[in-house]
Structure formats: structure tokens, C-alpha cells
Amino acid sequence: MTRELLIFEKGYNTAKNNFIPKMDIKGIDLDEILPKSLQRSEEINLPDIPEFEIVRHYVNLAQKNYGVDSGIYPLGSCTMKYNPRINEITARLPGFLKIHPLQEENEGAIELIYNLGQQLCEICGMKAFTLNPAAGAQGELTGILIIKKYFESKGIKKDKIIVPDSAHGTNPATSAMAGFSIIEIKSDENGELPLDQLEFAMKGGDVAGLMLTNPNTIGVFDRNIDKITEIVHKYGGLCYYDGANLNPIMGIAKPGEMGFDIIHLNLHKTFSTPHGGGGPGAGPVGVKKDLIKYLPCPQVIKNEGGLVCVEDDGSSIGRMRSFWGNFGVLVRAYTYILALGKNGIRRAAQNAVLNANYIRTQIKHKYSIPYDRINMHEFLVDVHLPNGVNSEDVAKGLLDRGIHAPTIYFPLIIHEAMLIEPTETENKRELDKFIKALLDIYEEAENNPDHLRNGPYNTLIGRLDATLAARKPHLRD
């Protein structure tokens, strides 16, 4: 297959192919503007290409890419859902798009921040939210730093955080960044947190809190959640909710009512903003009443005079980033919530659960389901197909059929894991297409396994040597 040329390789040797003439402003002494050390000594090496060819080049690349606008994107643990275009329209309104971060007197933006915080409090059962963190991982760190500040302010030494093996991979990393040691607890045969092991870990008296995702990363809702938070509180700990999996319970169950004290959300997952490739994101953090004073400042509050921004009085953990996080993401989330309303939010969650369970029940006669119970928004498959066909082979087989592959080899508690999350936005026709592809791959594993092992065949790039690619990557080819 012919390799796609880079834009630099398409440059012409002839000059002035673009219609914009070179600037001819005279009388400017560059040395007065920039010191010599910051000036170029040679011409910048940019390709000289006509505008129409530049446009064609990038449009062509975009058409080769796969995204949520292309088809089903069942990436487990990530909620890659369709993003309604109304979100994009509101985010691009001039008053939002062109606002300068220092325009704190902009009442419309401040009102949106306040209202969104109130909506998130209602959905999650919290008393206050900060919209300062820029992404989910930074939201996690914010929550853990609040836990740390809480105990430090009381003069209590607690230096451990409990993280189940079914948690998101960032949870132990975040705890370690904040200076905590990690206690890992393995899930039981139902994919839930064993109460006896939790109590044993808490009895030491040095555990500051528990980081838990519910439903967890294998798509299981822990039925003992009330007892779990009760145990942590009994020994003086705090309960932290990783909100990455809020999508299947929003509008139905509130983490605050489960006993959680702190929650971070991924607005770019649950509340519909395009994400991936490093951004954009937003990771608001919500807390119960006793923890409000530790939230990053400034905070938007309402008093007799209206909405005001309150600065740090010495209690806050401090800013997590400049200004108000990624404001465009906040606008999109606000639009999404207003557009759906209370009933729509609930219905989206119900459809996410329905879609995942529909796929599970249609493939479980061929694929091994390690936790074969009613799941939430996603479910875990342990891929052991005939003739040694594994998760990677199934993923490549899906790519050959024009379908984005689910997450594979995560979570680590299942070696040949394939984590499937269809989200609420896919209709039955698309789900059936995905199911048929999985069943066809099973049949191919029985009759022609070598064909699967050598795929994909219909993509721009065939199967790579994953080990070599990780150790000796060629990032420019």
C-alpha cells in the first residue's frame, strides 16, 4: 500500500505558489524588537504549497480517521459518546468564544459557571463544585489533595489510600503524587469490593480514604456500596468517587447519597465534549459541606448582592490551574444538561445500560463473560477463542470490518480482557452490526485463525510489531 506523503514532502521547489504576497513593510528594525539570540539565522523550512492542496491534504487525512462521527466507538472505560452539535453552536457564540480569561466581570460567564456547578451538585448529591481542574486526572489530584488538607488541618496523620484492583489506572498514580502509600484490595468473584478485607485495612487507623469507581471498571455496580462507605467513615476515613463511570447512573443514583464525600467528574465523557488526543477536558470536583472550604479558589457563590467570586481565605488547597479551567468544555456540558433536562439525563443513562446488556446477552454463548450478571454501561469479556485467537486478533478483525475496536488488555485483572462500552447513542441497527462482527470473528477463529492473526488487511497500516513499536518508535513516518 502506498504511504501517504507528509505535507513537507509535497512542497514545490518553485516559489510563491500562494496568492498572499510577501509583506513589504519597511522601516522596522528587528533588533529593536527582538534580541539577536531569538532571531532566526536561516529561512524557516516550511513547504511552499498552494492553499487548495493544503486543504485537500488535511481533508484527506481527516477522512481516513475514525471517530464518534464515523460509527460506533465502543471504547470501554472511556465513554466515547456522540456529541450533539448544539453543544458546538453554543460554545462558539461570540460572547463565550471570544471572552478573555481576565474578564471576570463578565456576568454571563460567571452565571454559567455558577449554574453548571448547581446542576452538578443536584446530579451528584454534593454541596459545592469547583470547575477549576482542566481534566479528569487533575480533578483526581484535586480531590486527593483535599483529603490530605482535611487531615493536615486537623493535625491527624493518615498516609494511606485504598484503591481496588478494579479502579482506573490513574487512581494509584494520583494518590502517590499526593504523597500517599497505596493499599490495593482485590475484587471478589462478583467483581465487588470484599467488605472483610476493607475493614481489615481500615483498622490500622492510618488510611485517609478510599478511591472507588461505582460502577467499577468492569461495569459492575457494587451492591454493598452503603456498607463500604459506612466502614470507611467508621474508622475516620473519607470516600472519594471517581466519576469517570457516572454515565450509567446519572439521574438515577447520586454518589453523595451512597456516602461519598468527594467526587470528580469527566465532563468530556459524561456530559458530551469531543475528547481524545490529549484534550480538551474538564475535571470538576464536588464535595460535601464540611470540605467546601478546601476547594480551589476562586469560587462563585450567591449572596444578597448576586453572584460574586470569593478568593482563598487560607483554607483552600490553592489553584489547580489558571482561570476557570477549559471554559468551552463547561459551555458544552451546560448545554448538554439543559438540552436533555432531568428526564433526558435519566433516559441517557438507562439506554447506556440497556445497550451494554443487549450486546452481552447476544455474544455470551460464544465469548466468555467473567462477571456474567446484569452490568451497567460496559462489560468485560475474557477472550479465549478457538485455535488460540486472542484479544488483539479480535480487535484487528473488527478494524477490518470497519468498526473501532473496544479497549483490550484492560483492566489488568483479566489477562485477555476486552472491555466493551457502546454508550447510549447507538441504535439497535448499529449494535446488531457490531454483534454480527464479533460472531463472524468467532467463526473465523474456528475455520481460518491464521487469517485473523495476520490482519488487519483493510486499514492503511497492517499489523505492527507492538514490542518493537514501543521500544523503537518512528514518530515521523
Automatic annotation (TrEMBL):
Domain of life, per lineage: Archaea
Top class in the EC scheme: oxidoreductase
EC number: 1.4.4.2
Catalyzed reactions: N(6)-[(R)-lipoyl]-L-lysyl-[glycine-cleavage complex H protein] + glycine + H(+) = N(6)-[(R)-S(8)-aminomethyldihydrolipoyl]-L-lysyl-[glycine-cleavage complex H protein] + CO2
Cofactor dependence: pyridoxal 5'-phosphate
InterPro entries hit by this protein: GDC-P_C, GDC-P_N, GDC_P, PyrdxlP-dep_Trfase, PyrdxlP-dep_Trfase_major, PyrdxlP-dep_Trfase_small
Domain Glycine cleavage system P-protein N-terminal: 31-296
A GO BP annotation: glycine decarboxylation via glycine cleavage system
Gene3D superfamilies: 6.20.440.10, Aspartate Aminotransferase, domain 1, Type I PLP-dependent aspartate aminotransferase-like (Major domain)
PANTHER family per record: GLYCINE DEHYDROGENASE (DECARBOXYLATING), MITOCHONDRIAL, GLYCINE DEHYDROGENASE, DECARBOXYLATING
GO cellular component: cytosol; glycine cleavage complex
Pfam families membership: GcvP2_C, GDC-P
Domain Glycine dehydrogenase C-terminal: 348-447
Protein's name according to its UniProt entry: glycine dehydrogenase (aminomethyl-transferring)
SUPFAM superfamilies: PLP-dependent transferases
Alphabetized GO MF terms: glycine binding; glycine dehydrogenase (decarboxylating) activity; pyridoxal phosphate binding
Keywords for the protein's UniProt record, in alphabetical order: Oxidoreductase, Pyridoxal phosphate
